[in-house]
Amino acid sequence: MSSLPEGWDMVVGLEVHTELKTATKLFCGCANNFGDEPNTNICPVCLGLPGSLPVLNEGAVEFAIRIGLALHCVVQPSSFHRKNYFYPDQPKDYQISQYDVPINGPGYLDLPDGSRVGIERAHLEEDTGKTTHVGGTGRIHGSDESLVDYNRSGVPLVEIVSGPDIRSAEQARGYAAELRSILIASGASDGRMEEGSMRVDANVSVRRGTEAPFGTRCEIKNLNSLRSVQRAVEYEALRQIAILDDGGTISQETRHWDEDAGKTQTMRSKEEAYDYRYFPEPDLVPVVPSEAFIRQIEAELPPMPAQRRRELIAHFGDAATDAQLDQANAAVELNLDPFIVGAIEKGITPALALARTANELAGLGDDAMSLPKDDYIALLKMEDAGELSATQSKKVLADLVAAGGGDPKAVAESKGFEQLDAGALDATLDEIIAANPDEWARYREGDDKLTGFFTGKVMAATQGQADGKAVNAALRQRRS
Amino acid sequence: MSDNTRPLNEDDVRHVAKLARLQLKDEEIIRFTEQLRSVLDHAADVASLDLEGIAPTAHPLELSNVLRADEVTASSDRDEVLRAAPSVADHRFRVPRIVGEAP
Amino acid sequence: MNAGEVSAVALANESLQQIDSQEGEIHAFVEIQREQVLRKAQAIDDGVAQGKNMGVLAGVPLALKDNLCQHGEVTSCASNILSGWRPPYDATVVSRIETAGVLIVGKTNMDEFAMGSSTENSAFGPTKNPHDTTKVPGGSSGGSAAAVAASMTPLSLGSDTGGSIRQPAAFCGVVGVKPTYGLVSRYGLVAFASSLDQVGPFAGSVADAAALLEVIAGHDPKDSTSLNAPAPALSSHLDDGVKGMRVGLCNELLEGCAPDMVAAIKRAAEVLSNAGAEIIEISIPELKLGLSAYYLIAPAEASSNLARYDGVRYGVRVDAEDVTAMNTATRTAGFGDEVKRRIMLGTYALSAGYYDAYYGQAQRVRTLIINAFTKAYSSVDLLLGATTPTTAFAIGDKVGDPMSMYQSDICTIPTNLAGHPALSVPFGVGDDKMPIGAQLLGPALSEQQLFQAASVLEHGANS
Ligand SMILES: [Mg+2]
Ligand SMILES: [Zn+2]
């Protein structure tokens, strides 16, 4: 499964930072809201004003434990440290984080492909503010000055550190995808990578053979899509192999992934490594969750993706094709399976519910999850009943997701999507048959492969207004 | 531990000054080295003790589980906060060019 | 104090007049809130006239150490880097005293960021000892001690990290109390060393100190290290005496002290003994390790607490072409030498390769000291010793020699490491006619007994 040159093995560990969906920040009562006016959710605590003191958010502790339990971690007594470094987005010039005793100790995550990745820890810490670079290209490099908004400062994060167990770029993507899915399922995080609420760093090294000691690793920072995770890991492993093949050595460094260029680039070498001077945070006291509290959270934990995958596939029985199994996995990975199950329960043809969800809804980004399920089911009902063609249905869906929901009938009408009446379809078919006599002759002689040819022509001529099933029926009728 | 309590030298002072974002003149480096060394010499009584088996105390209180409910409280007045800032633009804190990404 | 009997405006004016006549020579204040205090006093008088309860300390003037945040009023920690900073919020103790009707007359001078033992490290010039203006008032809360000693205000608040209330109280001849760690909220106290800092009162009498501590003590949900304990009842027990109390005369809090100091403390022991206490001579050798442990732990925490003064969000900025250079220029210009020394010392103690030998080791010594105190308190109720090795020293005497300055905290530091309460009560004068402070120490939350014993010493001081 690895695309590495023969004889090479890669070793990858991922560090994932996920923001928690609490109402307030980790150490103060300011709202934890993405996208608000700059510096409106700030107070002495999250601005690090002299004299301010942190008080831990109970909700964040509960979410962190949920994540730990979902990842089969040891939930344990924990405490906070200060990680000292200067940076303008860090208002105290130290980050309050968990160090030697994280709230969640070792656990594991099973991937749909059957592989298991160890979890070393999943700890609580605070997020930084957000910096906007002014001048130059708008990136940090070459900018004239920067502006800092502390709305995000102090938002609770859980950092999930995997073991060095990942052996391919695909598996790295699979791990990130399954983890994202688990985070969303747990209710602790919305997993929106585009908004930065889930961010992935990858530690990549390579070695000759699977038994050799691990090589020098490089850390790639801030991968903000699943696709970037896979591409960056693949690129980085190949880059390291090329250097070693040339007789060079890898220097330990932090690298930046440039999505447009498809390359990783040096951000910081080990010589510039920080001395964080960790020490116990004197302004906070230890968190010692009681066994009863942990068990209560466990009991309330919603079903996790692996279980939901099994339940979804059960709707298809033994008849599920490999393609459908893949679609089912993809749907669960994106937490879209409730749409499918909901539709099937409302009597929609399972294959249609699966295909629309895994192929179209899944392609509409993070917003897809926010679409009201009932609107979606109403749309599938129309399509299932032949009131909308597949093409029309997909267009309506895109509009519904963009608008965050709505009445599919109204959207279809506003787009002028009425089914072509039988007369208009007949007229169109006449024209197409007349224009393609050879193909029509072959079709009449029984060449079924030409069904698609004629259907495609009708769809093009009617701009997708025709219903595929009606076209098929009309073609068959004319042949007989 | 012997190596870790070797006398502090001027390079050490230069290093910690850099970590702490302080700029010292040569004369200050000499003076601070001498002064800090005398404090660390005094601390040798502590550094040289055999305290194997003694747990460290980070904090005088034995409290745990001090938590607050996840409920929104009023934020500060933005204008008042920004008025105290040395430089502001666009309702944000303005800083000169940042060299290097966050660690 | 005369709460309710004399008008608040009269008390405010009396305080302001005394400040006008003394401040030029003493320099206890960095900021005087003349108009605000008169406005507040008038409001209190109006309220009293309407029969309202304006608080248990209504109309009593108080001087606030400049490291306690007061909404909209300058809070600079006597540092150039915070010069002119006006916090957008009140410290919890400030809210509490205002609710109690206290009149805050101004912010008092201090060693920059509370780092020092003489108030000579203020960016705004030193405070003088009211008993002899060639002498230091002690520090870091020197301004707060001097304000009370010079009768500018009957009350003041300070903070004590290694003796910063008790040592200046002793030097200035007033009562100074360091409460049990966690008894008084630290919310809004600008941090020096978070695991050691504690806010406490200064007053001219034990009774006044008790009244102020009762107002500021008690649980605060904004401070995670605040004890969930009710404020202790002190005033109602001041006359309970020390009959049957076992008081340990602590060898380590006397040896190394000047002969006149030792003689005074032995007389204090006699006073307690005459009042019915049992005096037991006791030795706690571990206390000698306190100074070294303190000068690793406090700077380590300070190096982190003071990182935020970077020129980005508040305070003074020195411009430079990039952010690192700006941070560096700002901090280099904004901090005084003592602050820089401690930041560097603490940075070193925490840095890779040195943590275990210095910070880690100091934390273990902290455990030793706590255990030693616990053992001592199994055989005595309180400890008695000197607050300072000598009476107030001359201005300029120790500024060039940090280590000798640090030694002046040797008797006060161990209490902070343990988180225990202690107070200093005036007890006679030394050969130089300068005030002497007797120090009483007790286990966590023993404030009531400490005040009882202090009251006995206060009455016996001139006998
Ligand atoms: Mg982290
Ligand atoms: Zn806040």
UniProtKB/TrEMBL annotation, chain A:
<dbReference type="InterPro" id="IPR018027">
    <property type="entry name" value="Asn/Gln_amidotransferase"/>
</dbReference>
<protein>
    <submittedName>
        <fullName>Unannotated protein</fullName>
    </submittedName>
</protein>
<dbReference type="GO" id="GO:0050567">
    <property type="term" value="F:glutaminyl-tRNA synthase (glutamine-hydrolyzing) activity"/>
</dbReference>
<keyword id="KW-0547">Nucleotide-binding</keyword>
<dbReference type="GO" id="GO:0006412">
    <property type="term" value="P:translation"/>
</dbReference>
<comment type="similarity">
    <text>Belongs to the GatB/GatE family. GatB subfamily.</text>
</comment>
<dbReference type="Pfam" id="PF02637">
    <property type="entry name" value="GatB_Yqey"/>
</dbReference>
<dbReference type="InterPro" id="IPR004413">
    <property type="entry name" value="GatB"/>
</dbReference>
<dbReference type="InterPro" id="IPR014746">
    <property type="entry name" value="Gln_synth/guanido_kin_cat_dom"/>
</dbReference>
<dbReference type="InterPro" id="IPR006075">
    <property type="entry name" value="Asn/Gln-tRNA_Trfase_suB/E_cat"/>
</dbReference>
<keyword id="KW-0067">ATP-binding</keyword>
<feature type="domain" description="Asn/Gln amidotransferase">
    <location>
        <begin position="338"/>
        <end position="479"/>
    </location>
</feature>
<dbReference type="InterPro" id="IPR017958">
    <property type="entry name" value="Gln-tRNA_amidoTrfase_suB_CS"/>
</dbReference>
<dbReference type="GO" id="GO:0070681">
    <property type="term" value="P:glutaminyl-tRNAGln biosynthesis via transamidation"/>
</dbReference>
<dbReference type="InterPro" id="IPR003789">
    <property type="entry name" value="Asn/Gln_tRNA_amidoTrase-B-like"/>
</dbReference>
TrEMBL record, chain B:
<dbReference type="GO" id="GO:0070681">
    <property type="term" value="P:glutaminyl-tRNAGln biosynthesis via transamidation"/>
</dbReference>
<protein>
    <submittedName>
        <fullName>Unannotated protein</fullName>
    </submittedName>
</protein>
<dbReference type="GO" id="GO:0006450">
    <property type="term" value="P:regulation of translational fidelity"/>
</dbReference>
<dbReference type="Pfam" id="PF02686">
    <property type="entry name" value="GatC"/>
</dbReference>
<dbReference type="InterPro" id="IPR036113">
    <property type="entry name" value="Asp/Glu-ADT_sf_sub_c"/>
</dbReference>
<dbReference type="InterPro" id="IPR003837">
    <property type="entry name" value="GatC"/>
</dbReference>
UniProtKB/TrEMBL annotation, chain C:
<dbReference type="GO" id="GO:0050567">
    <property type="term" value="F:glutaminyl-tRNA synthase (glutamine-hydrolyzing) activity"/>
</dbReference>
<dbReference type="GO" id="GO:0006412">
    <property type="term" value="P:translation"/>
</dbReference>
<dbReference type="Pfam" id="PF01425">
    <property type="entry name" value="Amidase"/>
</dbReference>
<keyword id="KW-0547">Nucleotide-binding</keyword>
<dbReference type="InterPro" id="IPR036928">
    <property type="entry name" value="AS_sf"/>
</dbReference>
<dbReference type="GO" id="GO:0005524">
    <property type="term" value="F:ATP binding"/>
</dbReference>
<dbReference type="GO" id="GO:0005739">
    <property type="term" value="C:mitochondrion"/>
</dbReference>
<feature type="domain" description="Amidase">
    <location>
        <begin position="12"/>
        <end position="450"/>
    </location>
</feature>
<dbReference type="InterPro" id="IPR020556">
    <property type="entry name" value="Amidase_CS"/>
</dbReference>
<keyword id="KW-0436">Ligase</keyword>
<dbReference type="GO" id="GO:0030956">
    <property type="term" value="C:glutamyl-tRNA(Gln) amidotransferase complex"/>
</dbReference>
<keyword id="KW-0067">ATP-binding</keyword>
<dbReference type="InterPro" id="IPR023631">
    <property type="entry name" value="Amidase_dom"/>
</dbReference>
<comment type="similarity">
    <text>Belongs to the amidase family. GatA subfamily.</text>
</comment>
<protein>
    <recommendedName>
        <fullName>glutaminyl-tRNA synthase (glutamine-hydrolyzing)</fullName>
        <ecNumber>6.3.5.7</ecNumber>
    </recommendedName>
</protein>
